[in-house]
Amino acid sequence: FEVIFYKDNLEHIAIFSLMGVLIEYRHSLPPSYLPGPVKASASAKGEIMNAVLKNKGNNIEYEIIIRNTALDRYMINVTELGKITEEKKL
User: Fold this and answer.
1) What is the pLDDT of residue 9?
2) CA 78 – CA 1 distance, rounded (Å)
3) Do 40 and 48 form a contact (C-beta atoms < 8 A)?
4) Angstrom distance (rounded) from CA 44 to CA 65
C-alpha cells in the first residue's frame, strides 16, 4: 500500500506491505535541506532541480534530478555520505 501525505508543505510517501509493515519512506526536499556531502556531489554534476530522500530498511539515499550546462537532465542516486551510486540520463 502507498500513502501520500504532506507535512510542512513537503510531500511524503510511505509504502507498506500487506501486513502493515513499513517498507520504504520517501519525501521531497528542497535543495537547501540536503546534507553537505550530498549537495556537493550533486552540484558538481549540475544544477539541482529536485531531490527526494529515500529510506528503505533504514538505508538512506537521495534521488536527485540535475540539469547540466547543456540543459540535459539526469537522475542520480547519492548515499548520505555523498557517493553517487547511479546516474542515468532522463
Assistant:
1) 85
2) 26
3) no
4) 13
Q: What mean pLDDT value characterizes the chain?
A: 93
Task: Give the CA angle between residues 73, 38, 43 to the nearest 5°.
Answer: 45
Q: Is 58 helix (H, G, I), strand (E, B) or coil?
A: coil
Alpha helix locations (H) across 1-90? Answer: 36-45
Q: Give the cell for residue 81.
A: 555520505
Q: Are 28 and 50 in contact (CB under 8 A)?
A: yes
Q: Please measure the distance between the N-terminal and C-terminal CA atoms of the chain and give it in whole angstroms.
A: 27
**Rounded Cα gap, residues 6 and 51, in angstroms:** 16
pLDDT in tens, 33-71: 999 999 999 999 999 999 999 998 888 999 999 999 999
Element (H, E) at 63: strand 59-67
Cβ(90)–Cβ(65) below 8 Å: yes
